[in-house]
Structures are given as structure tokens and as C-alpha cells.
Amino acid sequence: MTNILIFIIAILVIATLVQIVRVSELLSEIKNKDVNEVTDKDNNTQGILFLIVGFGFLIFVVWQMITWNHLLLPPASSVHGTQIDFLMKMSMGLILIVFFVLSPILFYFVYKYRGKKSNKAYFFSHNNKLEVVWTVIPTIILTGLIIFGLKTWDNAMNVEITESTKVIEVYGKQFNWTARYSGIDNTLGKANYKLVKGKNTLGVDMLDVNSADDKMAREVHLVVNEPVLLKFRSQDVIHSAFLPHFRVQMNCVPGMTTQFGFTPTKTTAQMKESEGADFEYVLLCNKICGASHFNMQMKFIVETQEEYDIWIASQDNLEKKLLTQK
Amino acid sequence: MDIALRNIVKKQLLWISLAAISMFFASMLSAFIVEKADVGNWKEFILPNYFVLSTGVIILSSLVLFFIKPQLKKEKSIFGLVFTVLILGILFSYFQIKGWQQLTNQGIYLTGVGSNISGSFLYILTLTHLLHLVGGIVGLCISTIKSKQNLYSINNYLGLELTVIYWHFLTVLWVILFAFLKFY
Amino acid sequence: MSEHHKENFITKYVFSQDHKMIAKQFLITGMFMAVVGMLMSAIFRVQLANPGESSILYNLLPGAWLNDAGVLNPDKYLALVTMHGTILVFWVLTAGLSGTFANFLIPLQIGARDMASGFLNMLSYWFFFIATVVLMSSLFVESGPASGGWTIYPPLSALPQAIAGSGTGMTLWLISITLFVVGSLLGGLNYIVTILNLRTIGMTMQRLPLTVWALLITAILGVLSFPVLLSCGLLLIFDRSFGTSFYLSDIIINGEVLHNEGGSPILFEHLFWFLGHPEVYIILLPALGIVSEVIAVNSRKPIFGYKAMVGALLLIAFLSFIVWGHHMFMTGMNPFLGSVFTFTTLLIAIPSAVKVFNYLATLWRGNIRFTPAMLFAIGTVSAFITGGLTGIILGDSALDINVHDTYFVVGHFHIVMGLSAIYGMFAGVYHWFPKMYGRMMNKNLGYIHFWGTFICAYGVFFPMHFLGLAGLPRRYYSNSAFPMFDGLSDINALITFFALAGAVVQVIFLFNFFYSIFKGTKATQNPWKSNTLEWTTPIERIHGNWPGELPVVTRWAYDYSKPGADEDFILQTEPLKEGEVEH
Lengths: 326, 184, 583
Prior knowledge:
The structure holds 3 protein chains of 3 kinds.
Chain A: H1 2-31, H2 40-68, H3 79-112, H4 128-157, E1 166-173, E2 176-181, E3 215-217, E4 219-223, E5 228-234, E6 239-243, E7 248-252, E8 258-262, H5 268-275, E9 281-285, E10 297-303, H6 305-313, H7 318-324
Chain B: H1 3-37, H2 49-65, H3 68-73, H4 79-106, H5 117-148, H6 158-183
Chain C: H1 9-14, H2 19-49, H3 74-110, H4 118-137, H5 168-197, H6 210-241, E1 252-253, E2 256-257, H7 265-299, H8 306-320, H9 335-347, H10 349-363, H11 372-395, H12 397-403, H13 407-437, H14 443-461, H15 464-469, H16 489-519
Antiparallel strand pairs in C: 1-2
Helix pairs in contact in C: 2-3, 2-4, 2-16, 3-4, 3-5, 3-6, 3-7, 3-13, 4-5, 5-6, 6-7, 6-8, 7-8, 7-11, 7-13, 8-10, 10-11, 11-13, 11-14, 13-14, 14-16
């Protein structure tokens, strides 16, 4: 409602301004002046406006940074995530420096060199030395950034998979997620979309020896500081598994299995202490997938080994769930 | 614009269109290569002989085109040559269609249950080439009619020149597509 | 070619082969579509600020798009964002920007009577027009228009069962884009051949204004990349309507097991983004070309580093073909491939930075005249700095992990395209309006339009970076499903406020534009005291551009405030004085 009122007021204000302008046009006509000629006075006004609005914009940016800093994601809750956060700080620092140097230069130049009929511009058409300088310096800086970034990317993507890495499948479909634990053998049973039937919503091949001990769940429990490998599948369209607190994101593509390995470093309990009792780790869908794309979520819980053992024991394995129940 | 400039301009317009059409086919060939690398999903099959025949026919048709300029220089009629190329072009199209028939006999379909991406690509590549060829045939029809009426001379045969360039392009394009389908 | 044929209403205004008229046809159609696209964004911004509520703005939508309580349906929200993106990227910033200025400026700035083929040029507009009609018709089909995002990834865009808009609406979208691409290609062919062959005597490539260089390079980009969108779309058409499996495999949708096997949605992404990335440079380069011209003329100084600027354009164009994978970092691609794309993407920052520095150097010690066009040109530079820098974050694959498909990306591409490129388009309209219509646009309304737009636009898009860093995904109908986003509703409300205000400000521009066509002050021949050839044509535009002989060029386009000259500008046709050295 308020938006609409503001909207209406804005229209009225603009309509008034327009009328004022038209009146000034007519007045100029009477005085025989060209209303559209850009005068020294215009240049002065606009130059000053650039200085004021320009720096106002920069202040606005700083205000946003200060006011909204607390809304940003908390520091990463994973090993590779901490490295990403560091790279992000470095990169952001760099671009903010460049932004806060170049933008004021622009606004200041435009103010300082605002035109006067009596002035003359300086005919300065090129300078090869300058071109080299401002090509080489960005190249060096960016190369450094690239190398640093590639290292971080490599650490995130080429995670070492060991015996102790727990394999968990995350299965996306319109519009929910299901997890499948790989059980004691830490191997997921084979699955095929043609086998989806009834309770077997993930199409697990129960003839595969590895399937019996798999467990399906509607939330994911992880043990703190233990590496995990998430394997992603989709049943229908492209979804994307986004776990922002862990700095994990991976598309779920029908016809393919993708994966992302990471090690969580903070328990949910710890996060509740620092972020508030309402905090939960969550998996969101981050690739447009249909009408309820905005509401496709699954809870993730990071806990101690003991808590996890209790929880996993309480989940039925697939042999029990799919084969023996009527 | 004088005639010489107009000719250059029209030819350049054609060449740039050919660049665009090449990108169209290049992207499909790239897709073909990428998908073929995924061995599990690719159904192999034998390329029907009709496509070998059609390759021969189109190469022949391009060779015939080379005789046009000498004939024009001697101020002889080129109707026979142009008409031959037109017939060969129609023969090419016939062989392509027979090739598709041979494919379906083998159980390779464009679509539907039982179809595979390998077959689909083959159909799409040959189909889109053929559709572009139809444009060439239209050009050849017009050129055939005009050459019968002796409207071309060595100093004034732009329309025919454009058709010839386009036709050579179709031949080269087909040879590349065929080589891919047969040997890759 | 020019003086003799008699024109009737149809051949003069409808099926015109005159490049100036065709340019205006592109401009008007582009402006109309801009209004449509902008209204769509106003509507979905209202939904985001007030989720689950009704709004008076929804009255603009077909009734079926709302539920019984008058609230926008989630899938129709996605339809709006899809159509908004499609319209603004293709219809406004490609056809509206290139189509207008390439058509208008190329023959005039190179000293030609018209384009190489007036007929192909006319066809290029009419293909565009029909594409527009087809796209607009998709708004009125029962199942709604395409709703899979402007990037239309399959399987979502291939399966009507996945979302209603992927039915008839998507089919119409594909037909429309095919026509659009054909029209664009027909135009591009003309631009290239005209620039290469029809330059007047003395107009060497080194004397071309930067605008023409930018438009030439853009046309080449288009010729090489748009056909790939056609092949991409063709395979999608076959998957949707003829049962092939290029992009589809292993799918169960709405309980139905589909027969498709062997296809890969990632193949679509590769083909799409192979066009998609050059496309954003097809949008940006003409804007930068316009800005180079406007800044030089209004600083009364040569554009700094002409050769470096051309080199930067060429390097950006070349690199734009090898960065497309940065849209696909999170698809599960081989990490090495991801590294390659990070490398090439960060490289493209270098020529972009060079251009910014050259603009700043042009302004330095200039004698700046603030026409409305100049204000927008300066706005372009500011937005290019702001938006380009966040590209460095997004281009780094490791950082992209947490900002991909969040509002961080939305902020980035809107600032580079929605601010930078659109400001360039506005600058072009204000600057060349006198040449197009023989009258001046009102200066004060132009000033108000600029400041209102500049302030509101930064107000809309800068806060989005924070939403992205808070983890908020894009294309979300509502943020209320996740408690972690509850704290963001104030930011959303602020963004919507600026969006609506900014939309209203555009009314000033529309009023100024149309009013000035009929009632604007009559323009003089060269109101901006510019050097380039278009300002040597008579004010009442004529077919063939110059009565009598074509101009002869003797110098480059940037002799502003040249020492020893009588005035602070020298027309390109002005012969060198005794002892004067050509720059």
C-alpha cells in the first residue's frame, strides 16, 4: 500500500516539475533566448551536482557496508570455505580500493573541468607510456589474483577422498530433497530412474549388494570435522544444491551425477550460540526449477560423533524399508 | 553505386553469410564431438552407402561449375552446364533421402523410443544441410532459366556467380560433414 | 540510387529502405519494448517487497496470472522475470541499441549514401518486427509465456509438465528468437560490408570515429555467435516437439517416465553461453562506442588513446569468445576447465580497464559541456567501473561457488547492462536526436531524467550485492520460505521503492522524446559543434544524405581544441591548413 502511495506522489511531483519546465521554456521564448543552449551556469550546476551526488553515492555505499554487514553470511563453516572467505576478503578489498579511487577521480574531474566559454581544453590525444603503465599494472595484479584463486578452486574441487570420507547422496526433484546415506560399506547402491516405484522414490537397485545398508532421510546429519562427499542427482530438471554456510554449491543435472566434497568445522549448536537460537544449516535450491523453486529446502545438522551415532542408528536401512515392509 | 562496387559488395554479403552458416554447422559439429566422447550413450552404426554416392554427386556438380567461366569467355551458351548442375543437385537430394530410408531400415531413427543421440545428430546435420541446399537449388533454377535466355555474359553474371559460390560452399560443407560422420 | 525515386507513405515510413528511417523504426520498437520490460520488473519488484499481497499494479496482468486473493502466482512470477530478461537483453539492448545506432550512424559517419543493401536492411527490421509480435503474443496464451528464465535451460524449458510456460509460450519464444536472430544477422551483414566498402574518399579505417569501429566489431561478433544460438534452439525445438534426446535423459516428471536417453542439459548450456557471453559484449560495445564519441565532443578534446581504444575493443571481442564457461562453473565441469575459464575471464578485465582509464584521461583538462547526452556518458563510465569490478569476483571460480545465481550476479549484470549500456543508449538518443528529427530535446527535462535515473538505478542495484553475499538466490518468488532471509526484507523494500521511482522518472524521458519530435526547438545543422560527417548533412534529412557530391575526408574525427585552429573543433572535411600536420 505504501509503495502505491509513494508511486502516486512521485508521479505528481514529476508532473509538477514538467509543468515548471514548460513554463520556463515559454518564458525563454519570450525573452528570445535558446532554452536548450548549455550555458556556463548549466555547466557549473551539473559539475557541482556530479561532485555532490557522486560523493553522496560513495557515502551511500559505505553506509550500506556498515549497516548491512551484520546481514551477510557468517564466516564459513567448512575447511575450504575458510579459504574461500579469505580469497573473497582479498578480492573485495582490491576491488573496493579500485572503486574508491576511480569513482572519486571521475566525479572530481567532471567537477574540476566543468566548462566555461572562456576556457580551452588541452589537446592531449595519446601517450603510449601511460597506456603501457595502465595495461601492465592491472595485468600483474590480476595475474596474482588468478593464481591465488586457482589454488583455492583446486582445493575446493579436488578434495582428497579417503576411506573415512562419508558418501551421501542428495537427490533433488520438483520440489523437495531426499538424502541417501551409504551405510556401513560407505558405498551407495546403484540407482536408475527406471526403478523409481512406490516407496523406492530414488530408484535404488535393490539387487545391488551395496544397497541394503543404505538409508534414506529427509534431513542430513554430519559429524563435525569429518570429511563428507555429497553426490547429487536430479529426477526431472536442473536443480542446484546450495549450502551457503559451507560455501558449497553444485548443480543437480538429470542424467548425470555431480559431487562436492567438504569438511564441516562448526556444529549447529556452536552456530546457535553465535548466530541465535533459530539458526539452522539449510540446503536451498539455486537453479530455477519451476513454480516452487523458492521453497525447496532440506535441513543440515552438524553434530558430534556421539549424537550422529544415535541418530543414524534410529534410521531404517533400505533393506528393511523397501524389501521387508508390506 | 557503380556496377563493379555493387558486385564486390554483393559477394561480400554472401561471404559473410557463409561465415554465419559455417558457425551454425560448426557448433553442431562441436556438440556432436562432445556427445560422442560420452561413449556409454553413443550407438554406433554403419553409414549408409547412399551418402557415399551423394558425396560423389555433389563433388561432381562442383567440378562442372568450373567450366562455366571458360565457356562464358568464349561467349558460348552455359545452359547445358547450369542445367547439369541443377540435375545433379536434385540427384544429391534424392540420394540423401534414400540414405535416410536406409538408416530407418537399420533401426536408426531421428526420434522416439529406440532412437539414440548418434542417429539424431546424423539426421539433423544432413537435414539442415539439405535445407540450405534447397536454397542453392532455387538459385540454380533461376540461373538455368536465365542462361537458357542467354542473359549472362562474361561481364555480367553476378547472380550466377553468387549461386556458384554458394554451391561450392555447400559442397565443401557436405564433404566436411561426411568426413566427420564417416571417419570420426 | 538516391535522388530520383518517388516515395509514397508506405515506402517512406513503412517498408523504407532508407537507413535513417529503419534506425527510427528500431528505436521506437525498442522503446516500446523497454516500457513493457520495465513494467514487468515493476510488477515483480512489488511482489518481492510485499510477498503474498495483492497490488494495484497486478491489474496490468491477465487475470489468470493471479490467484483468488489477487496475489501473483509463483510460476507467473517466473514468467515475468523470463520475459523481462528476454525483452531487455535482446529487444532493447541488442536490437534497440545496435539496430538504431548502427543503422543511423554508419552511412552518415563514413560518408555513404545508404547501407550496402537497403533491401536486406528493410528485411532486417521486418523480421525484428514479426519477432516482436510473436513474442508479445506469447503473453496472451492460456498457459502463459516462457517461464524458464531468459536462459531457458532444458529440461525445464523443454517440458510443459515442469512449468506451464514451457508449453505454447516456449514454442512462441523459440519461433520469435529465430526470427530475431535472422533479422540481426541481416543487419550485421550490412553493417560490415558497408563499413568495409562504402567509406567516402579519404575516410581510411584510422580516420573512422570510434562509434563506427565499435559497431563494426559488434557486427562481426554477432555474425559469428548468433548462429550458435540458432543451432542450440534447433536442437531444443527437436527435443520439445519431435521426441529427440539432445538435452534430455533420465527424467521422471509428474510421475511420468520419459523415454529420452543419452542427452545432456549441459550441452545446451555450452551452446547457449557460446552466444550468451559474446551477446553481452554485443550489447556493451556499441554503448562504449557512443560514449567515446559523446565524451570527446563534449570535453572538446580528442578521445584519449584512439589506437589503444580500438585495440581494447578488438581484444575484448576476441576474448569474449573464450570465457563462456564462467556461466557454468557450478555445473560439475572438470575443475581444470573451470580454471581455464577463470584465467580468460580475468584477462578480459584488462582491456576493459584500459578503456576506463582512457575515458578518464579524455575528461582530464577538458572543457566539459554538460549536455544531457554527456551526463549519461559520464554515468556509463561510473556504472562500468562499479559493475565491471564485481565481475572480477564472479569470474573467479572459487568465489563464484557462493555467489553464483545469487543477487550478487543480478546486481553485477544489471549495473553493467542495465546501467552502463542503457545509459549509453540514452546518451546516443539525446546526442543524435537533432540529426534524427531536426529538433532539440528539452535540456532541463534531460537533466532531471538523468539525475533521477542515476540516483534510483544505483539505489536499486547496489544493495543487491549485499543480498547476494547474504546468500539470497535469484529467481525466488518470495524470500519468506527461509528464516535466514527474514532480515533482508527491508533491503528488498528499499530496492522496490527505488525501482518504482526510477520507472516513474522514465516518463519524463518519454514525454521529452515524443514532445520534442513535434514541438521541439528547431535544430541547427551542427548544434554540438562536432567534427564527424553526419553533422555536415542538411537538417531536413534527405534520401542519399548529402545533396550533390559526397564529402571528402582529410583528417581524423577528433581535432577538438587543436592548437593553431580558429575554433575548438575542425570538421573532418576541412582541408589541412598550410603547415598543419595531420594528427
